[in-house]
Design goal:
Layout: H1 2-25, H2 29-42, H3 52-57, H4 65-68, E1 73-74, H5 75-88, E2 95-101, E3 103-104, E4 116-117, H6 122-141, H7 144-147, E5 150-158, H8 166-179, E6 181-192, H9 199-208, E7 210-218, H10 222-227, H11 234-246, E8 250-257, H12 266-276, E9 281-286, H13 294-299, H14 307-323, E10 327-330, E11 333-335, E12 352-356, E13 361-364, E14 367-371, H15 374-380, E15 388-393, H16 396-409, H17 415-422, H18 424-436, E16 440-442, E17 449-451, H19 453-457, H20 459-468
Parallel strand pairs: 2-5, 2-12, 3-4, 5-6, 6-7, 7-8, 8-9
Antiparallel strand pairs: 1-15, 9-11, 10-11, 13-14, 14-15, 16-17
Helix pairs in contact: 1-14, 2-14, 6-8, 16-17, 16-20, 17-18
The protein binds iron/sulfur cluster.
Length: 477
């Protein structure tokens, strides 16, 4: 195995210069100097072999807390603890709701989400799951003081929430409205594939109060779509987006760097088409290997794709959006006009998160909980436990990390939050390093900082830098 890897590395090091040249050929002239500048800042002059392929590949995302240490409480205890917590928080601070729907029409090979198709007994599963969600909503709704706090947004993610069907989603939204406090500003949003969207759905959901939709377009290039199993033509996808925009929806979408055969100029053409058709927000991801998509990586030999190649495409997409007036509202989400991406940006507004449904995480203050996987969720939901797997209380050090993490992920890290948590000297050293590596830049006003495309790419590195500066020996990261 190691020998194979060694051969692969030799092969890539011989091939990389060639591929890198090709990738630069695909970058519009106007972005080349900016991207080379970003890349140049990363070069480590102290290393003898300054291999950029290795440098841009040195990154990883930290795992969530529940994945790195044991829960403090099982599901029943966690619910008992939580029953008091929502009331101890400010009555005026809004909070947000996330509802996870794990069903999809088919499983896409590249996808890393907790989602699966329902081949057998589809309607029975849908009914059971809807009943469980409504039961959980009512349990939370029994917490009187939680009821008084305004909801900023309800975000249905997945999976494909539309798999529940209009009448079940109608039932869930009515349960939410009955149990919680909606204001005229509460935004209802859902994620979907374009293939599940119809004019009827857009009209009905408008009437239910939904106004934002995140469409997993992934790519508009015919050959790429074929490889990832998307059957709709790019023309149909764009027609549906136009229809949503006509109905007044805020539309955002994904761009996934690293899909097989997805390169420039295709990526930039897609961004242009999506912008022209009214998309107001873009999440830029790199396709990352995980146990759920390993076969897809093998099928298309994706592990052999030079990381530097992907880094340059990522940077180009980012620069293109910046050029067109989009701004970071999260480290990897650029938006303009009305798209505020309220669910993903809720931590920067210091909102609590009420997660509902299988594998949904939630937190109130420093108490975090997580729901069980699908079958265990259905089995465990009862009047004593809303389907929790467990809960934990963040330690003081974990709380500090959480605050720094929120700042970094927001795309606009506030130095004052760092100073308050890890002290002046460490904060200044950290920010000086990030500025030197062009991970962040100081805004023209001099008052705030913004993550650059380098920072977005190395988000995991920024998080680990922050973690290393937290003064404790017991902190698990
Ligand atoms: S990409 Fe979307 S539709 Fe495909 S399996 Fe993942 S969540 Fe479902």
């Amino acid at each position: 195995m190691q020998l194979c890897r060694a051969y692969r590395d030799v092969f890539l090091s011989l091939l990389a210069p060639q591929l890198i040249m090709n990738v630069w050929d695909e970058v519009p002239q106007e972005y080349i100097a900016i991207i080379k500048d970003q890349l140049g800042a990363l070069e480590d002059k102290t290393e003898r072999h300054n291999n950029l392929e290795q440098i841009v590949g040195r990154r990883w995302m930290p795992k969530p807390l529940w994945a790195v240490r044991n829960y403090d409480h099982d599901g029943i205890e966690a619910w008992e603890k939580l029953s008091g917590i929502p009331s101890s928080h400010s009555r005026i601070t809004p909070y947000c709701i996330y509802i996870h729907v794990p069903f999809c029409r088919a499983r896409c090979g590249y996808c890393d989400c907790y989602a699966f198709p329902l081949s057998k007994n589809e309607q029975r599963h849908i009914q059971q799951y809807t009943d469980a969600l409504v039961q959980e909503i009512e349990m939370w709704g029994s917490q009187e003081l939680l009821k008084e706090r305004i909801i900023s947004t309800v975000h249905f993610g997945g999976g494909t929430p539309l798999m529940l069907g209009i009448s079940n989603l109608d039932r869930i939204v009515n349960a939410l409205k009955h149990n919680f406090c909606f204001s005229s500003k509460t935004e209802l949003a859902f994620e979907t594939t374009s293939s599940m969207l119809t004019e009827e759905i857009l009209a009905s959901f408008n009437q239910l109060g939904f106004s934002r939709i995140h469409i997993g377009v992934q790519s508009l290039q015919e050959d790429v779509r074929k490889k990832i199993g998307r059957r709709e033509s790019p023309k149909t996808v764009l027609e549906k987006i136009r229809c949503a925009v006509r109905f007044g929806w805020i539309v955002s979408t994904d761009v996934i760097i690293g899909l097989p055969g997805y390169r420039n100029p295709g990526i930039l053409d897609d961004l242009d088409s999506l912008m022209e058709n009214g998309v107001e927000g873009f999440s830029i991801y790199e396709l990352v290997q995980s146990p759920r998509n390993r076969l897809f990586f093998d099928q298309f030999h994706l592990t052999q794709q030079p990381i530097l190649d992907k880094f340059i495409m990522f940077q180009t997409a980012f620069q293109h959006l910046l050029k067109h007036g989009f701004e970071n509202c999260l480290y990897n989400h650029l938006s303009k006009h009305r798209d505020k991406n309220l669910y993903f940006t809720s931590p920067s507004r210091h909102e609590d998160l009420l997660g509902i449904g299988t594998i949904a995480d939630g937190y109130f203050g420093n108490f975090q909980y997580r729901h069980s996987t699908y079958l265990a969720y259905l089995k465990s939901i009862s009047e004593k436990n809303p389907g929790f797997e467990g809960g934990l209380v963040r330690s003081a050090a974990e709380d500090v990390y959480r605050q720094l993490e929120v700042e970094i992920r927001s795309g606009k890290p506030d130095p004052l939050v760092f100073v308050a948590n890890i002290g002046y000297e460490k904060s200044m050293d950290l920010f000086a390093k990030w500025i030197r590596l062009k991970m962040i830049c100081v805004d023209p006003s001099g008052d705030s900082c913004t993550l650059t495309p380098n920072g977005a790419w190395f988000i995991g590195k920024l998080l680990s830098d922050a973690a290393e500066n937290i003064d404790t020996t017991t902190f698990i990261y």
